[in-house]
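_Backbone structure tokens_
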Amino acid sequence: MAKIMVVEDEAAIADLILVNLRLVGYTGISVDRGNEVMNSIELHKPDLIILDVMLPGKDGFSLMREIEPLQIPVIFLTAKEELNDKITGLKLGADDYIVKPFAIIELLTRIETVLKRYKVDGNTFVLDNLEVNLDAHTVLIDNQPIELTTKEFMLLEILIRNKNIALSREKLLELVWGYDYMGETRTVDVHIQRLRKKLGLDDKIKTVFKMGYRLEVPR
């Protein structure tokens, strides 16, 4: 999995991001001062950088000018919400710009999107005898193909990309069926049961009491 550097001077935010990065399988590196970033990049060679703008030592925009020639993808994560700041960040070469406060699932999804764009991270998920190719949309059990409907595969992909993280039924409904879907969260339960049965994941797709579901895999 990819190595991600978190450049953030607020320890609580940095810790929250690092914990969730590690939950889904990434390697996380933390830097809390702007003037230490370039040395840390040289030492750790990250695949992606999450960068705050307001940092002690050197600000994120100045750092972006130094990082851009290295062709390392950057996502700004900052409290600076003015449109001019966002335009500045993107013009400097950042791949995305997220304003605090933020939802961790949104950050993880945007990380996945950027890594996929750069073809940094592998898109094959293996768990016991199950193999899922997220690019080819193929599912194998013991090397035998398993047919999933479009919605079943989308639901499985969301669970994989957020493995070990509890997702509410409402969030799953939103991510798979869309904001304008008029159905009920019971739809999610039905599709989860189908996935469990087809893929033998009864003990892996955990029900989170009064909330939703979590795909539980070894860390």
The two ends are 12 Å apart (CA to CA). The first strand starts at residue 3 and ends at 7.
